Amino acid sequence: MAINFDNALGIHPQALALREKRSELLASNLANADTPNYKARDLDFKAVLNNTLSTSAQSLERTHAGHLAPQRDVLGATVGYRNPVHASLDGNTVESHIEQAKYSENAVQYQASLRFINGRFSGLMTAIRGE
Fold it and tell me: N or C, which end of the chain has less CB nearby within 10 Å?
């Protein structure tokens, strides 16, 4: 009997990949904290996960060739810009303390996703061994 890893692992591999892409965005924000006119970017993990789990997720359609297509460059997630709490004189919207907190939070959630996947593999190994 073949093992279907998509069913066995569930949503966790996609969540892990999305967390990885979010950490890249947050690290880019931190690296550009002193760049004038740099706009902090992020994605809404919960919204992407809800769209993935929802069977009635609708996509935006262009009705005219001149319309701009939505930016969906991260695993189906729309990358948005973060609104700053305090305005900067040079136009930069990166707030280091917020970015560091978001990065740390994302790192913890990445580790949790890894543990979920590890637990699933451990369960599969137990089933294969017949223990």
Answer: N
What's the 3-state SS for the chain?
Answer: CCCCHHHHHCCHHHHHHHHHHHHHHHHHHHHCCCCCCCCCEECCHHHHHHHHHCCCCCCCCCCCCCCCCCCCCECCECCEECCCCCCCCCCCCCCHHHHHHHHHHHHHHHHHHHHHHHHHHHHHHHHHHCC
Size (the chain), residues: 131
25/31 Cα distance (integer angstroms): 10
Residue carrying structure tokens 């994605």: 43
pTM above 0.85, yes or no: no
Which of 15-29, 35-49, 72-86 comes out lowest in average pLDDT?
A: 72-86
94 closest CA partner among 48, 39, 47 = 39
Percent of the chain with pLDDT over 90: 42
Could you state, in order of their start, the residue ranges of all structural domains in the chain? 12-47+72-129
pLDDT at 73 over 60: no
